[in-house]
User: Fold this.
Amino acid sequence: MEEHSAERLAAIVESSFDAIISKDLSGIIVSWNKAAEGMFGYTESEAIGKPIYLIIPDDRRDEEADILRRLKLGERIEPFQTTRRSRDGRIVPISITISPIKSRDGILVGASSIARDISETRETDRRLRLLMREINHRVKNQYAVVLAVIRQTATRSRSIEDFEKRVRERIMALSHSHDLLSHVDWAGVSLADLVTHQLKSFEDLQPVQVAGPEIVLDANAVLNLGMAFHELIMNAMRFGVTDAGSISVRWCLIGSESGDVLELVWSEPAAAYADLLAQEEGFGALVLAKLVPSALSGQAEWSFTDGLIVWKLKAPLARIQVGLGSPAHL
Assistant:
């Protein structure tokens, strides 16, 4: 029975995904499983008989000496995180558990170490910390946007009811853009998807022509262009687009010495609020003429010709597209 138990234990050690290493009290390696070979690069024959310092970085030598000292004093050593050095010199972050090895007489004869590579865990933790900082940054920026929406809407509202309605609409528009970003883990949203998403409810009232090359927007561009489309749509609904024609949303890329520039054009066959937009009196006009262009390092202009009112935005592609020089965050 004891022989079978020893065989089972040996099989468990050999098949373990964790590196299991045992050493005597002088720090000489006496066992070395397959996982240890994979983690540290030394074969069993190369490791056994060598000092444990074979895999211990120079700056961790005192740590090993302290472990052996505490084991000899009979102290319990709690699992801890440290580093070890592989054959190719790579430093491996590990979580390690140290257990004493005793003879049948209860005499301490060595120690067993179970080491688990935590490189991936550490990288995950690092990315999580970065993500939390990014989320904090985005939330603060959105607070600023919401406060600006409230402040600017308040100065231009005729009543409490009007104020409440406009604020709710604008914050919901921001929420819709957030929904798009969250569905792709904030990795970027295509301009076509953003336009389609914002126009979804409006297309039941009027046809909309949408055309342009594939462009994947970063989070900042999604949120700002989402606000712009909301204001354009609300103006069209409020002042009434007639059946004389449809709304058109088109975009293209224009080459320049400093890099490609996005040109986005919204046009609609409505004239009722052309003067209002030109005077920049409404919050929508403020968003479209100043806030959005500024956030995208671009420029915007209005024109009113041939029965069409046109909003044209030009912005550096590097400031709006994921992966072209601007960070994909707010």
Remarks:
- The domain at 2-117 is CATH 3.30.450.20 (Beta-Lactamase).
